[in-house]
Design a protein that fits this description.
Alpha-Beta Plaits; homodimer; alpha+beta; 4-stranded antiparallel sheet; 3 helices
């Protein structure tokens, strides 16, 4: 994440992993530590482009990570430490989650000409 | 949004509009009213599938709306009242926003078999 939360991204196409979740109560420290570590690790992966993440006061969160290719997403999915943390998260941290993998076709924003 | 924040969606493929934003200070009531109205209106559009949305305490928000087709996204984009509210939002409500349009290729979640 950049300082203001926005991921600086190249021009499309690229891929997005949209992860929506609600947290179980408890182990906030363990969860925060793992989230920080996973972000550090993700940044080191080939094809990682950026991430945007937020969670509201109601506990509903959305994290979108951006990748150069489906192969990069697959490699990150198969990363041993990431896989271990995902298993732990499914068992202990998440009440419910949904994951969608998408190919970004076009992009615009307040910093770029509107399309 | 369903009660718990998750959008019940069909099997892919479908399309996602990922909207990330930071809010300017002020006019919270006007913004909230418009957001509610836009959600009501979006639900009435052909091809609308669902929406997930959250904003953290730091003011960074992500809203992902889901659509059957690019044509449905285009039609919503061209909806007169929506276009007017977007113009107002760009001028008054948003400090910065980024919008990405993506084709969802696959999905999994805690409620469905992991893929």
């Amino acid at each position: 994440m950049s300082g203001d939360g926005f991921a600086p991204l190249p021009a499309p196409p690229y891929y997005a992993v949209i992860f929506s979740s609600t947290r179980k109560d408890g182990d906030d420290a363990g969860y925060a530590e793992a989230a920080t570590r996973m972000l550090e690790l993700a940044r080191l992966q080939p094809g990682f482009l950026g991430v945007e993440s937020t969670r509201g006061g109601d506990g509903f969160g959305i994290t979108v990570s951006y990748w150069e290719s489906e192969a990069a997403i697959r490699a990150w999915r198969e990363h041993a430490e990431h896989a271990q943390v995902r298993r732990h998260g499914r068992a202990h941290w998440y009440e419910h989650y949904e994951l969608r993998v998408a190919r970004v076709e076009r992009a615009s924003g307040s910093g770029t000409p509107s399309r």
